[in-house]
Design brief:
Elements: H1 7-16, E1 46-53, E2 56-64, E3 69-71, E4 74-85, E5 88-99, E6 105-114, E7 126-127, E8 136-139, E9 148-153, E10 156-171, E11 174-184, E12 193-198, E13 202-208, E14 211-219
Antiparallel strand pairs: 1-2, 1-14, 2-4, 3-4, 4-5, 5-6, 6-7, 6-8, 9-10, 10-11, 11-12, 12-13, 13-14
Length: 221
């Protein structure tokens, strides 16, 4: 089931939720939006992940930022990710998101910087409304098995397929039920990722062709 993204309508709704302002209205929760989201966007939330990449230990720290940024007229909330490989900081990124009135979470851009490039912006960096960048629904509010959606990136696109919403995962950080299992680029073996999202927490597991990470701790504001 392919989603058809009503771009003009949805962006108008986003703008109506606080676009152009620097408040938090764009990520407020109208009555129609489920109380528990797979992509919570809770300012101050910190999630720690541990795993491996090409046989080396990896740690990620993801922090939902408190100060919004206006992108394409919409107040967006940032998620900052720091990645350490074998104890060395190798990547720094901030991704920008906003929630529409229906509860869908849209991605409005990212700033990715890698140690190998001197922490200058990488080719994966982009912003909606600039140089062809397009906002896209990164987490639909109504996840159903078989749902397929597509995400923008500067050098192509990513395809996401929902396989299940009933997964249970037991980790050091806790036991998470009713998790959504989403496969990214299922037809590309070298770029195929498996992601599990838990309600109220977000991503708890990610498996890639080069390794994996799992949620090891959560710090709430």
């Amino acid at each position: 089931m392919q989603t058809q993204l009503p771009t003009v309508l949805a962006l108008a709704l986003l703008a109506g939720c606080g676009g152009g302002g620097m408040g938090t209205a764009s990520v407020s929760t109208p009555a129609a939006v489920p109380a528990v989201s797979y992509f919570p966007l809770e300012p101050g939330l910190v999630r720690i992940y541990d795993g491996e990449h090409d046989g080396l230990p990896v740690r990620e720290e993801v922090t939902t930022l408190r100060s919004p940024r206006t992108i394409a007229g919409v107040a967006c909330i940032g998620e900052q990710t720091l990645v350490w490989v074998d104890g060395v900081l190798t990547e720094f990124a901030v991704e920008w998101f906003a929630r529409d009135l229906f509860g869908n979470v849209w991605k409005f851009g990212e700033d990715t910087r890698e140690r190998a490039r001197g922490f200058n912006p990488s080719a994966d960096s982009w912003l909606a409304g600039q140089r062809g960048g397009e906002a896209w629904i990164a987490m639909p509010v109504d996840l159903q098995p078989g749902l397929e959606f597509t995400g923008y990136r500067p050098r192509g696109s990513d395809t996401f397929v929902v396989e299940s919403t009933t997964e249970t995962v037991e980790l050091d950080a806790g036991v998470f039920t009713d998790c959504a299992r989403i496969v990214e680029n299922p037809n590309e073996p070298d770029d195929r990722d498996i992601l599990l999202f838990a309600p109220g927490v977000g991503r708890v597991v990610e498996e890639t062709s080069s390794g994996y990470i799992v949620l090891s701790a959560v710090r709430r504001p």
